[in-house]
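Here's a chain:
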Amino acid sequence: MSPRTGRPTNDPKTLSTHIRLSQEDIDRLEYCAEKTGRTKAEIIRQGIKIVYDRLTETE
C-alpha cells in the first residue's frame, strides 16, 4: 500500500507559515471564503498574487 494518499498535483504545497491576524481580518477572510466557495488558504494565495502582480507590473 502506498503511503501517499489524495490526488496528485503539479503544484504541491509542502511549506507552511504562521501569521497573526486580528479578529477583523479573520472575519474578512472567512467572509471571502464563504462568498467565493474557496478555502482560506486559496484566498490568502490569491491576495498574495494580486499584490505581487501589482508590484511587478511596474518593473
